[in-house]
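Listing S7. Sequence submitted for prediction.
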Amino acid sequence: MPRFSIIVPSHGVAGRLSQALDSVLGQSFGDFELIPVCDAPGSPAADVAAGYAERDCRVAPVHAPPTAGLAGARNTGLRAALGDWLLFLDGDDVLVPGALAALDARLRATGAADVLYFEHERTPWWAGEPTNPATLPLARTPGGVFAPREAAELTGVQLPAWSAAYRRIFLLDQELAFPDGHFTDIGFGGLVALRAERMAVLRQVVVRHLLRRQGNRLNLPGEHHFELLDQVELVLARAVEQGLSAKRLGPLFEQLFAAVLKTAAHPRRLACRRRAFFRRASGLYRQYRPAGFRTPGGSVGVQHRLLARGAYTAFRALRGANQAVVNVTSSLTRPRGLRARLRYRRQLRRPLDQNLAVYCAYWGRGYTCNPAAIHAKARQLAPHLRSVFLVEPEAVDSVPSDVEYAVIGSRKYWDVLARAKYLINNANFADAVVKRRGSVHLSTQHGTPLKKMGADQATYPVVAAATGSFARLLARVDRWDYNLTSNRHSTQMWESAFPAAYETLEYGYPRNDAYYTSTAADVARVRRELGVPEGKKALLYAPTHRDHATGFETSLDLDALCEEIGDEYVVLLRAHYFYDRGGVRGSGRVIDVTGHRSSEDVCLAADALITDYSSIMFDYANLDRPIVVYADDWEVYRELRGVYFDLMEAPPGRVARTPGELAGVFRDGSWADEEAGALRAAFRERFCQFDDGQAAERVVRRVLLGEQPEAIPPVIPLAERIPAPAAATLVRN
């Protein structure tokens, strides 16, 4: 039987779960079991936990459905636990080094306590000084083991569940579990303190709690705040039933209603039904107010008295809840020009157009990428929607003649942005765009992240300087309702790079549908359009952008490469979209396709891909055609840009570090041999999880038609997918 059982609920924190598990497994005290509580097998967190379980027998994952909430997850872990002592750790928090050794030493010194409270540190996710809220409540307690009556102020409701260790037999004997619903820590903490006979304290930080950027979910507006009153009633009813002494009941009552008053006075938490909340809280206050209870002094005491009388109008006036709501656009960058600002503001006051969808790709560069693929599918499955694509003036010619568009900055542009129910983009809308209540924002992304993205760029000075304000970046991310991913790796990395409250859709990238729906005739057509000579093998060379370089440059001499590898090859050059200005950089056997509208068409035309660190490799892998990585500056790129994994350890095919090596893999045929095929197969298994030709349909049905997740077509297994055929006959694994 282990000394400790550490229970870690993990719903919604797959991207940060590893650091929580590592903080436990790295403890110097090793007598424990680690119980990650995950959603169903195959969920993002379950995959992470399963990997740990394979490497360490102390890790024993269990499963609880997301519908069970935090309480259900913790109770599932509690039922599975075998340790003498239970600890609860949120999936994005960590145990500080030496925590378990300190707990073990303290428990041996204090003897058979029922609960041991300890300090914790709240760490701002971005910047700022950490705080230790448990210091004051624990400072007033006796030094050794004590009875609850000796520390009446320690009621258990002020400390989260992860700020204490619980004797497992005590919880089982008392039939204690986390109450259902929100604010479960308050209910559980209060019930534990009511039933405990012996308490102890460790005045040392054990848990480091990461304050989520989007804040505590319990602070968000919604009906769930009424569940706070359920927890308050549960604890007070149990206290009265138990005959709790007035000495202990007074502090318990005051601390519970401190939380109630904080919510009642917070207009953003209770966007509606504030009067109903106040009315019920007032009834509970009068029902459970202890005899002889003395209200606090000052303004808080006035709030107590108003709550006791049910004087809601006076309470609102006291707290200033009837002040005008601050204009949400006052702190945002505004449309240029007074007329545009006034027009946009007027449009924002009009009702949302429930049948209007607005699309944009790459800051208006044209009709392309995931937004274009979703737009095309929406015209089939949701023809009732009016769809408008946003483009820059120079990109108007890229829009098909039957697609409605608006030029960025025009009056029509601001009109549709203000009124649209649905806003779909692969690279965020302008800062000035207001997220209206009832609107639905979908971020489609435009690649799988190898390089660091979003907030993860902050520690890389070169790219951080180019990114600008991270606060503004993340304010844009806060508008997302949905974020699209094409593989589990992306799910986890986007959660780290863009921490916010959006829902992740593991549906695949709609633009990649073309790799499974295109035919041999489509491939032949595209090759003709690009000018690929009949009978030649086309090698697509697509390098990525270098943050430390200015303008497009490559150390690879493509003409020399063509001479080295023979007449059977031509090279399609596609520079990063930052440099897409339509200039011709090719000659002879080098065909510049940088200005071609569709990267999917270019990939379909290519018999193989040569790239460095571009995300195009993840998309191209869907075609199951050879990929060669030309990594002449990997160490510099990794150091300056930052990466999420070592591409050299898990490449999609052969790796060349010099021009000579690159030419060599084509001369000797190893670019498409069995070993290259094996590397590609492993890469596809990892990064082509959700791309199956039906991603656009899944997105349209879920986001634009509002179908429930269970009604969405499932992802076709990788082994059953048939990619578009290559033009040339290649050696396959």
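Caption to Listing S7: primary sequence and predicted structure tokens for the chain studied. DSSP finds 27 helices and 21 strands in the chain. The first strand starts at residue 4 and ends at 9.
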